[in-house]
Amino acid sequence: MEKNIAAGKMKDTVLGKDSQIRHLRKIVKGTKISLFAGLTLLVLFLVSAVGFVDAAQQQVNSTKYLNQYRIGSKALTSAVRCYAVTGEQLYYDAYMQELNVDKNRDIAFEGLKACKIKDSEWDELNNIVNLSNGLVPLEEDAMNAVASGDIQAATDFVFGVEYTNTINQINDLTEQTISDILERLEVKKSVFLILEAVFALLFVIGFIKMILQSFKTIQFSQDKLLLPILEVSTQMTSLAEGDLHNHLNLVADDSEVGKMVEDISTMKENLQNIIDEVAYVLEQMSIGNYKVDTQQNYVGDYVRIEESLQTIIREMRETVSTICTASSEIECGAVQLADAAEDLANSCTSQAGQVSDIAILMDELEGSIKYNEKEAEEAVKISNLASSTLLVAGEKMTELQQAMEEINICSTQITSVTGAISELADEIEMLSLNASIESARAGEAGRGFAVVAEQVKRLAEASQEAAGQTSTLIRKTSDAVEKGTRIVAESAVSMEEVQMGAEETVTRISTIVEKLKIEVESIDRLNENINQIVSVVDNNSATSEETAAIGEQQKSQVEAMVHLMSKFKI
Predict the structure, then answer these.
(1) Do the Cβ atoms of 570 and 291 come closer than 8 Å?
(2) What pLDDT is recorded for position 7?
(3) Closest to 147 measured CA to CA, from 196, 205, 95, 210
(4) Comparing C-alpha atoms, which of 116, 125, 120 is closest to residue 59?
(5) How far apart are CA 326 and CA 203, in angstroms?
(6) How far apart are CA 227 and CA 230, in angstroms?
(7) According to the 3-state scheme, what is the secondary structure of 8-67?
(8) Contact 38, 210 (CB under 8 A)
(9) pTM of the model
């Protein structure tokens, strides 16, 4: 409570001369004073009216009781004088009736006690009572004289100088006392009447002033409060609807409404500046310029907008910078991939040629062996020609051995190439994974690059699979070539033995024929394997060419992406 009071006092110290609160408090204060004064005047008017009525009532009652006292005194005096003059019992009874039954003087005296008689007036009344009581002996003497029949003596008692002077004195005192009391009450009544009129006039003036104050309050409330509040309410509705260009038809001053108008204008200006700056920043970001920064003064909760905007700019700078770096690295990788794919295509083409040569040699070897078989069947008949034939066979076997060694060397080279292809496929797959991660970070801007990463991943998987198949076939070919080499070596040894022991040719021709048959079967299987190798090598060649084409396509896409990323300013 003390804090609220202190805050209220502090606010009072900063109120301007045009402050609505200051004017309203002044009006309220004036209204309270007018209302309090009106109520006070109304109470005083009622008090004076009551006083006037009381004074009038006192005047009436005093007049009534004083007249009653005077009537009682005159009734006694009249009755006793009539009785003294006439001696009739009627007057005596009337005297006794007044003295003992009617008792007008006693009743009047008691009634005057309730009329707020002043002490000096009571002294006058008591003096009158004492004078009245002083006449009682004379009246008793007069009534005793009448009872004794002495009318003259009775008349002298009640018509004598002493009695007459006392009666006159009583009457004069009574009239004077009545006049003084009535005059005092009339003055009191006049005073209350004047006060009543004054208070009534002041009340009317205060009531008129209060009415004027009410009109002033109504006019102030309408002009300074209601209309500005309606205007401010309309302005706030426009602000709530997002309209910052609705003109406020109020002038800023040091009043509360004026300060509110100034605050609304400041708020509209700040909002407009913030909206313009946010729109400008977003527009620059939309065209790839991330070097922008906030310039406006953000206050209060608007600081959160500034922080969020700066966070977006900072995060986008880092993201675009990361994408640019990744795109540069991917560009280098794509160039390397294209070069490797081209080398692979060239190697595969060379391998295909070499394998074709091997196939031709194997066909020739097969024909030669078959020919040797036929010749061996006829060896018995042409044993004389066996030596020369064996020499030719030895030379052919040497050439075959050399060809098989070349096949082994080519198989080793092909194995190295397929290993390089597998490693390259692993690198491409890792590159694709990194590109997918970076494209996911880039969000909408990296969607196109994500497609490229997916294609590179598929190419890596296809290359890995082709390399695996090629390695398997080459391994089988190498096994078959090794077996053929072993067979050729054995044939060469046999030929040397034949050369060294021509005498054993005839006896071992049958064995040679059987072995040649086995060799023909081996050569058939070897031809089948070589045909498979030729097919695989052709497939690898086609795949490598396709890989080279995809690499070129990826390279062009990466170059397009690098060109696109170069448009961003960070």
Answers:
(1) yes
(2) 44
(3) 95
(4) 116
(5) 95
(6) 5
(7) HHHHHHCCCCCCHHHHHHHHHHHHHHHHHHHHHHHHHHHHHHHHHHHHHHHHHHHHHHHH
(8) yes
(9) 0.38
Taking alpha carbons only, the member of 307, 568, 279, 338 closest to residue 446 is: 568
Nearest alpha carbon to residue 242 among 263, 272, 264? 272
pLDDT along the chain (570 residues), means of 10: 44 58 75 80 80 77 82 86 88 88 86 81 85 85 87 87 88 84 85 87 85 82 74 77 73 71 76 81 78 77 80 79 71 66 65 66 67 66 64 69 71 69 71 74 68 69 70 72 70 66 64 71 73 71 71 72 66
**Number of Cβ within a 10 Å radius of residue 129:** 16
Residue 444 is predicted with a pLDDT of 72
Burial 399-411 (b: 16+ CB within 10 A, else e): ebbebbeebbebb
Euclidean distance between CA atoms 503 and 110, whole angstroms: 197
117: number of Cβ within 10 Å:
20
Length of the chain: 570
Query: Is residue 552 a contact partner of residue 338, using CB atoms and an 8 Å limit?
Result: yes
CA 208/CA 211 separation, integer angstroms? 5
Question: What phi and psi values does residue 197 have, to the nearest 5 degrees?
Answer: -65, -45
Which structure tokens are listed for 472? 């398997």
> DSSP assignment, residue 445?
G
